[in-house]
Amino acid sequence: MNTQTEPSSIAAIDLGSNSFHLLIGRFISGHFQILGKEKIRVQLAQGLGEDFSLDEASIERGLEALKQINERLKDISADDVRIVATYTLRKAKNAREFLRQARRFLPCPIEVISGSEEARLIYQGVAHTQPGKEQRLVIDIGGGSTECIIGQGFSPLRLNSLEMGCVTLAEKYFAEQELTTKRFKKAEMAAAQQIDPIATQYQRVGWKQVFGCSGTIKAVAYCLEQLGFTGGEITADGLAALKKTLCEDSQVSNDRFEQIAPERARVLPSGLAILIALFDTLKIDSMMLSEAALREGLVYEMEERMRHHDIRERTAVSLVERYHVDQAQAARVQSTAVALYQAVKAPWLLAGKKLKPLLNWAALLHEVGISIHFKGFQRHGAYILANTALPGFNAEEQQLVAAMVLHHRKRLVTELPALTLFEDQDQVRLIMLLRIATLLHLHRSEDQPVFEPTAEDDKLTLCFDHQWLCAHPLLEERLIKEVKEWARVDMQLAISTNDDNSR
């Protein structure tokens, strides 16, 4: 009888500006075995108005696509699903409404990731599927943004997300179906303006290989093959020939390129213009096609987290080193914060919400702003955390960690970031736990606080050893003041000792 446990299936969903992609598979002996794929062309970026609001039609298309994707997720644990959104939902003013509606029928929340995080994940997808030790340039042309990354092995050396994509440029330069050299030239110049600020830096770092990934570059590669450019490489000569052909036909001809769907045909010219500008501005000789992209990067990162190799931990530790954080003090606060979390997670219904690691990293980084100035260091720290690229953290995780650091001391400011991944109540509770953890280590000594925490509803009771508390009168005074801060957010903090009543 075979009692070996079957590997769990995992799912990665990429909500791009042009298409939504689903990838389902499982890891067997370190190898990712694909079990299913879905691609639904939504062209979400097409509905992004000049005021950066998504129109109702685009929202409906997106929600309908998610309902279809959700059908494939029914037998997969929510913990084994990760859904990320990119450019359009980064930019849309009403993205939160879309995310709330989508949450009703998805097994887990949608993470909106930053441009740099999107670039990092794209690189990871290519790096895991294209072995090689030489430096490489990876390019992904999406619907709303274009990612450029130079890396070596599994480490990105330079990464940028440029605000230009095949959908957004199509709306501006190719709204009319007839293709002309003049329209191409305008689109190429606009793309070159976006690329130019990074060109010198990228050429200085250099690369030995160039890989292109995702739908636009795959479509271009197919068209070049149809024109007789075989060998699997995309070259500047091939791109010029394709542009000439499209202008001669005045369209993306179905007769000539029969596998190009109408939806892709509408954005192919703008994607080609971006690719030509990239070749010209970055002085690219040739490009190979990679089948992997963002969603593959997601699944490999999920595997890393399953093996407890979380990139977010490395990010936090690197910030500690960069800003010369007092690691002994950070470790003390971390230990107490985690102990408090363990005491309250059941009565406060925090278990299973993936909040503990974020509290842990906020505790580790709560003094990151001291390197700027002690006065108001919580504000300096929050600014650093909110405005620094934090590999592995999605946009809302980054905002929550920054909010915890901002509110961990002094008078509590009750305004919180508007998040969809985390409930307001949970944000407040994490902040209050970090406040207590930092307060209990006010003296910055190895003298550990002697107390027992208990919780119920919105109340936390700290019962101290009487002699220990009497030996720390300043801390006792601060704790009494903290009781009032808790009341400002409709929470109750009670202080007692083992031989008296609660205060």
From TrEMBL:
Main location: membrane
UniProt-listed SUPFAM superfamilies: Actin-like ATPase domain (SSF53067), HD-domain/PDEase-like (SSF109604)
Pfam name, any one: Ppx-GppA_III
InterPro entries the record matches: ATPase_NBD, Exopolyphosphatase, GppA/Ppx_hydrolase, Ppx_GppA_C, Ppx_GppA_N, PyroPPase_GppA_Ppx
Transmembrane regions listed in the UniProt entry: none
Keyword Metal-binding carried by entry: no
Domain Ppx/GppA phosphatase C-terminal: from-to ranges: 311-482
Residue ranges of every copy of the Ppx/GppA phosphatase N-terminal domain listed in the record: 27-305
Domain of life: Bacteria
Localization per record: Cell membrane
Catalytic activity annotation: [phosphate](n) + H2O = [phosphate](n-1) + phosphate + H(+)
E.C. numbers: 3.6.1.11
GO terms, molecular function: exopolyphosphatase activity
UniProt xrefs under PANTHER family: EXOPOLYPHOSPHATASE (PTHR30005:SF14)
Subunit structure: Homodimer.
UniProt similarity note: Belongs to the GppA/Ppx family.
Name under which the protein is recorded: Exopolyphosphatase
Organism: Corallincola platygyrae
